[in-house]
Structures are given as C-alpha cells and as structure tokens.
Design brief:
Elements lengths: L1 E6 L11 H8 L4 E6 L12 E3 L7 E3 L1 H14 L8 E11 L2 H8 L3 E6 L15 E4 L9 H12 L8 H5 L18 E2 L2 E2 L2 H4 L3 H19 L1 H11 L1
Parallel strand pairs: 1-2, 1-6, 5-6, 5-7
Antiparallel strand pairs: 3-4, 8-9
The chain binds adenine.
Adenine binds next to strand 5.
Length: 232
C-alpha cells in the first residue's frame, strides 16, 4: 500500500518509524511519503492559513496548497484514473471503526490531508473521498488522527501480522479479546488463573470464550447488542 500524508508538521510522524509499521515498510508492504503543505505555497512566509470570509475568530486552511499537493502527488506518480482514496481528518467526519480500518487496509493508495486551525476551506471537500474523525473530541490537528487510522489499517494488511493475531483481535470477533497472562505464575500474590496452567486446551479455550463474552458484556454491552442486531 502506498500512503501519502499532507501536513504542516511532518516532524510529528516519527511513530510510523518504529515497531510494526517500520517492519511493514522494510518488508515492502507499505510505503509512506510525508509532504509539507508549506512546500506548496507561493507566498514569502509560506502561509497555509488565512482569515475566514464573513469574519469571526480563527483561521482557515487555504485550499491552494492542498489542491496543489494532491496534484503534485498525482503528477509524480503519473496517476490518471487509478484507484486512490483521499481522506480528510476532521472532528466532523465519520467515526472511525475497526470495520473502516479493514476496508482501508484493502486500498492500494491512500492520501491523508491533516487539517488544522478552525478547519480547511470547504472547497477542499470536492476532492476528498472520505472524512474521518477518530472520536468525539477536538484535537489540535489531524496528524494524530492520521497516525491512528494508518496504524489501524496497516496492521491489517496481509503479511504485516500473523493471520491468527488479526482474527483474534478485539472488535474483529464481535467480542473483546480475552485476558492475557505471562510468567511469573504468581506476582505480588496475584495468581494466574489455574486453568491456564493446566495444559488442558479444551478447557482453556472454553475459559477464554467465557471471559471474552463476560468482559464485553460488562465493559461494552452496546457491542453485544450490535452483534445480535447484525445476526438477526
Ligand atoms: N482533528 C481534530 N480533531 C479531530 C478528530 N477528533 N478526528 C479527526 N481529526 C481531527
């Protein structure tokens, strides 16, 4: 998958240089290019924002650097009608979910536009395919949301993680993952459940299913309802 990011803070994206995403890049499963929107400005101070028409507080991100950034990427790749998805991160977008992560992981090419200030000029939306919010709260910009979406989608690209790891994910199965324990068997008086030390794989599987269901019911009863609705 090819991922292009348009941002005014390219230096924020260091989390994409470590761990699983780093390995995915090394394996050639993902390529990530980061573009500074200021490189697509034509004014002396590389200003990317301006006052809002109609007055009021706050600045608006100008359309030109964003349109030109997208054009530059298309030009560079000699893209004409290839499949490509342009995503704008914004608190008023569709709420991000595991289902959306799965869909995005199947795309060939994603371009992320990271908004800032009071938002981007509305005309940018004419070239955007999808607006995504990562939650009902307002962050200082779209960079952290872009990283959240990229991380969630990239780990689902075939070959990035073992298949079984993904199949057992919370949200993929409709219930949360079960509780996990590792050595030592007793730590500060806290014991690992006996069944996990028993070597009885049938019993372990049964215990895990029960635990997963119970904790989903306690922590997120809405998810259980959702699965029931989908099945009925
Ligand atoms: N930009 C600011 N807040 C955001 C959010 N919650 N999701 C996506 N982009 C944002």
């Amino acid at each position: 998958m090819l991922i292009d990011i348009l941002t005014i803070f390219p230096e924020i994206f260091t989390p994409l240089e470590v761990s699983i995403i780093k390995r995915a890049k090394e394996k050639g499963l993902v390529k990530i290019n980061i573009y500074n929107l200021r490189d697509f400005t034509h004014n002396k101070h590389k200003k990317v924002d301006d006052f809002a028409y109609g007055g009021g507080r706050g600045m608006v991100m100008k359309p030109e650097p964003i349109f030109e950034g997208i054009e530059y990427i298309k030009e560079k790749l000699k893209i004409k009608n290839e499949k490509l998805k342009i995503i704008l991160l914004t608190p008023i977008g569709t709420l991000f979910s595991q289902k959306m992560a799965k869909e995005l992981s199947q795309e060939k090419h994603l371009i992320f536009i990271c908004g800032h200030y009071e938002g981007v000029d509305e005309r940018v939306k004419t070239i955007v395919d999808q607006e995504i919010s990562i939650g009902d709260y307002v962050l200082t910009g779209g960079e952290l949301p872009a990283m959240v979406v990229i991380d969630a989608a990239c780990r689902l690209i075939p070959g990035v993680l073992p298949k079984e790891a993904i199949e057992e994910d919370s949200f993929s199965t409709g219930v949360f993952d079960w509780p996990h324990y590792t050595r030592p068997p007793i730590y500060q008086g806290l014991k690992v459940p006996e069944v996990l030390l028993s070597g009885n794989h049938r019993e372990i599987a049964k215990w895990r299913r029960k635990q997963a269901k119970e904790r989903t019911r306690t922590l997120r009863p809405d998810l259980i309802k959702e699965v029931k609705n989908e099945c009925s």
